């Protein structure tokens, strides 16, 4: 997983600027609730450790429909300033995030995910800290399911700081009939991660079904690598050389994306599996 770059705007000033750019009657409605929204911003920004237990939005009450709609329209009917900010959120990301959705590291990020959903919490519709580049699949699957029983279940790619730790692993499963083995991914807590941090990773992978997706994607690639290894062996390439090539592939993918990138983990698994290497010959 890869952390996203936060723009670092003054969120309160940005909120006021976007509200001022709206047209009436929405503009008047928005300016009237500025202080309430700013107070909610402060809860999100100043005490993120407690955001999983944040109280329900004050704008969900039946008599707050106009305010709720006006807040959501700030995102859906974009002003000049918000269009610029939205574009910068995408452009300001690490190279890996320009290619891979941070939630899954599988697809290209084409949209912005509201970490805390805008239907549940319309006040956070244009809070930059709440807008994370995402692919359509993750955006749809995650939906509003970011917490359960007051605890976050999804990684926050601006605030969570444990993403550099290695927690994704894989092993080869060898069938009894001697056919090509399959790769199977699993999670393992490193000593550097707390139990709570690792629990969040486990929930994230569970809710987005990432292990099964990685197994499916990697096994297609793995069958090709397996055949490449056999061909290299037939060409009398030494096993040690093949192992070095696989580790180079691991290093390249880990440096380009991250150590928990599923393709990087696949190459490392192949390079360190004695049964796989033995099948390649001397």
Tell me the overall shape: elongated
DSSP, total strands: 6
Distinct helical segment count: 12
How many structural domains are formed by the residues?
Answer: 2
Q: How confident overall, as mean pLDDT? A: 92
How would you describe this protein?
It is built from twelve helices and six strands. By secondary structure, it is mostly helical. The chain folds into two domains: 138 residues, no CATH class; 111 residues, no CATH class. A two-stranded antiparallel ribbon has the order 1-2. Strands 3-4 form a two-stranded antiparallel sheet. Helix 1 runs antiparallel to helix 2, helix 2 packs across helix 4 and helix 10 runs antiparallel to helix 11. The longest helix is centred in the C-terminal third of the chain and has 25 residues. The chain is elongated and about 75 Å long. The two termini are 36 Å apart.
Could you give a short description of this structure?
With 282 residues, the chain is mainly α. The chain folds into 2 domains: 11-148, no CATH class; 168-278, no CATH class.
Architecture blueprint of SSEs:
Layout: H1 11-21, H2 26-32, H3 34-46, H4 65-76, H5 80-91, H6 95-99, E1 111-114, E2 131-134, H7 136-142, E3 147-148, E4 151-152, E5 168-173, E6 182-187, H8 195-207, H9 210-234, H10 239-256, H11 262-271, H12 274-278
Antiparallel strand pairs: 1-2, 3-4, 5-6
Helix pairs in contact: 1-2, 2-4, 10-11
Task: Give short descriptive properties of this protein.
about 280 residues, mainly alpha, two-stranded antiparallel ribbon, two-stranded antiparallel sheet, 6 strands, about 50% helix, about 10% strand, elongated
